Amino acid sequence: MRREQQVYAPHEAIREVYFPVSGMISLVAQLGSGEQAEVGIIGRDGMSGLPLYAGARNLMFRAAVQIPGEALVADADVVVKAQERSPAVRQVIERATSSLIALMGQTAACNRAHDVEQRLARWLLVSRDAAGEEALELTQEYLAMMIGVQRPTVTLAAGAFQRDGLIEYRRGKIRIRDAAALARRACECYETVRREHERLLEHNGHFQQGNHSAAALP
Known about the structure:
Layout: E1 6-8, E2 16-20, E3 24-30, E4 36-42, E5 62-67, E6 71-75, H1 76-85, H2 87-113, H3 116-131, E7 135-137, H4 140-147, H5 151-163, E8 167-170, E9 173-176, H6 179-185, H7 188-201
Antiparallel strand pairs: 1-5, 2-6, 3-4, 3-5, 7-9, 8-9
């Protein structure tokens, strides 16, 4: 998966399902003004194309690779038929859907209630967990979109984290140097979503830690 590679365009038919092994896919909403906001992410223990399992054939958001990596890719019809035949596959998909909904809902509340540094810390940790890497290829433009602020605002917050030794930022790459300290600067939303995610996926052996398995598709 290459950075900014488009996985789905808004309202176009979903033909393939991505199972990231590394890297991260962003779900981005675009307003009529041209402004964009990230509304969800798909990492190494998730999957794209979830509207398929509610009977929809397209996604209203744009899906694009934000952190490069690798993914397993399957024909959408094959995956739909697999979940129709297999209760185990269906349960995995339902829990992945619930996890994404929890993230999207908490994000909406977080953007309303918490300050920029708290939101930035949360999203850096969420991105690290999703991609499974301490070094993240994230531009300041993307960071601003993630937390719904202008670029100068996120530059100030990221600069404060770097001065305090929490992150190292250079040339579009952020390395998390002290995840524990960063978690202390994050709002409660990070732990809330992380616990819910683990609860939902704890029985999904094929998806934990990015260990996708062909056995999940009978």
